[in-house]
Each structure stands twice: as C-alpha cells, then as structure tokens.
Amino acid sequence: MMSNLRSTLILLLLAAIGSSQAPAQERAGEPVKLDFQNTEITDVIAMMAELTGKNFLYDQEKVSGRGTGISPTPVTIDE
User: Fold this and answer.
1) Which of 48, 47, 41 has the alpha carbon at shortest distance from 66?
2) What is the CA angle 68-70-74, rounded to 5?
3) Which uninterrupted H or E stretch holds 11?
4) How far does the chain reach from its first CA to its final CA, in angstroms?
C-alpha cells in the first residue's frame, strides 16, 4: 500500500511540474501545486528531495506519521 501511495504521489507531482526532465536547478522558477492529503511524511520528504535535488537526512525511527499540506496556489521550488 505504501508503494502505491508513493507511486501515486510521484505521478501527481510529475504531472504538476509538467513533462520537464530538467535538473532541479533548471526547474527552480517553475511553479508546482503541492497537495498532500493524509500522506506519510517520509513520502513527502522523498518527493521534496527529488523535486529540489537536495538531500534530507532524518531518523526513520523518530520521523513518522501522516499529514496534509495544501498550497491553494502554485509555488516555485525555491519557495
């Protein structure tokens, strides 16, 4: 189930940023719409790492849970 959720979120995120295969630095100004409904926080971290091209370190035993995040208007990767 976790991999299905992650796959779905990745597909939604890719759709949000278009079909661009450019590195994160080149997409920095492109707006994306981020909507997460009851999503595992580690999946959000993984997707943000992919989107920004940055590494995120966290303790898997201490970082857990689900959350919701909604950006009513698109935001840039820098934001």
Assistant:
1) 41
2) 150
3) helix 2-17
4) 30
Write the pLDDT tens digit of every residue in 14-64. 555 544 445 555 556 778 888 889 999 899 888 888 888 888 888 888 888
Residues in CB range of 2: below 8 A, 6 or more apart? 40, 43
Task: Answer left, alpha or beta for residue 64, where phi above 0 means left and psi between -120 and 50 means alpha.
Answer: beta
- Strands 66-70 vs 31-32: parallel, antiparallel or unpaired: unpaired
Global confidence as pTM:
0.59
For the record, the structure tokens of 35 come out as: 């909507």
